[in-house]
Amino acid sequence: MVVLSKQTTERYSYIRNCNKTSTFSTIPVVDLSKPEAKALIVKACEEFGFFKVINHGVPIEAILKLESEAINFFSLPHNQKEKAGLPNPFGYGNKKIGVNGDVGWVEYLLLQNNQDYNSMRLSSVFGRTTDKFSVLNEYMCAVRKMGCEILELMAEGLNIEEKNVFSKLLMDKESDSVFRLNHYPPCPEMALDNKSDEKLVGFGEHTDPQIISLMRANNTSGLQICLEDRSWVSVPPDHNSFFINVGDSLQVMTNGRFRSVRHRVLANGSDSRLSMIYFGGPPLSQKIAPLSCLMKGNEESLYKEFTWFDYKKSAYASRLADNRLGHFERFAAS
């Protein structure tokens, strides 16, 4: 595929020959209520770094309530949304992703894993309407619980004796987890030109730097993941399920056994897409390195040890599409 740029009010990216992109028909599906879940999770993390979970235990009421509040937020006038604060990095962002020149057909709200902080941010927009904050907190707690369950099943599937070796990093009171709402508005130009083989990029290709990402979206398509052969496949939307990404930190902790999935979102011509992502991160001081219990025989570590603070600082100083782990690989190609 060829990535092009067109000059409009912003320098957006387009993907050419996108109509030739295949649909990911063999997406791994994990039923968290089944005993084989742990084995399926490990297999999916090794092969794709990505899978879908059903019977996830997150109450549908919490999902629908937060989706409704998110729609209300993104429906507000631009100057009202900006009262949530400019993204530094937390707050409301529009089109610009990060500080390094990345642009996408997206607006977003980035929040901390801290109820008091989020209440302060959102009270500037809505006033002190406590129902909105409790809805957000209920959802985040339920999704974090699901994420910890997945990480513990993952540890069991890897035959790690310490079942909470991954999940304890999310449960730590200093956990640096964050929550993001992404809204991709319909693109009028694409709706008028439905025969074009170009698609507007909503969020450019990247990997997630954290341990695990837990994403739920409405029923609008747009998400694509990159397979090991570098081909891109479209993921069919499913608003009843959650999609799970392996992050860079988990790739390091498994010494490359699990792969951090490269993914992107393409804008839709006629329908808006709303996604809600919980990024499970460790405490800033946490050292990230391959787990010794997963190293076999004389196997060498593929990565230098680093703290989450160091990696986060490096990752956010890069462009989206950069190989963020490249600086931390022991045997990087010269």
From TrEMBL:
Extent of the signal sequence: none
A single GO molecular function term of this UniProt record: gibberellin 2-beta-dioxygenase activity
Keywords: Dioxygenase, Iron, Metal-binding, Oxidoreductase
Ranges where the Fe2OG dioxygenase domain occurs: 174-282
Pathway participation: Hormone biosynthesis; Plant hormone biosynthesis; gibberellin biosynthesis
Class of enzymatic activity (EC top level): oxidoreductase
Domain of life: Eukaryota
Catalytic activity: gibberellin A1 + 2-oxoglutarate + O2 = gibberellin A8 + succinate + CO2
InterPro entries for this protein: DIOX_N, IPNS-like_FE2OG_OXY, IPNS-like_sf, Iron_ascorbate_oxido_reductase, Oxoglu/Fe-dep_dioxygenase_dom
Enzyme Commission number: 1.14.11.13
Cofactor: Fe cation
Keyword Iron: yes
SUPFAM superfamilies in UniProt: Clavaminate synthase-like (SSF51197)
Family: Belongs to the iron/ascorbate-dependent oxidoreductase family. GA2OX subfamily.
PANTHER family xrefs: 2-OXOGLUTARATE (2OG) AND FE(II)-DEPENDENT OXYGENASE SUPERFAMILY PROTEIN-RELATED
Protein function: Catalyzes the 2-beta-hydroxylation of several biologically active gibberellins, leading to the homeostatic regulation of their endogenous level. Catabolism of gibberellins (GAs) plays a central role in plant development. Converts GA9/GA20 to GA51/GA29 and GA4/GA1 to GA34/GA8.
The protein, known as: gibberellin 2beta-dioxygenase
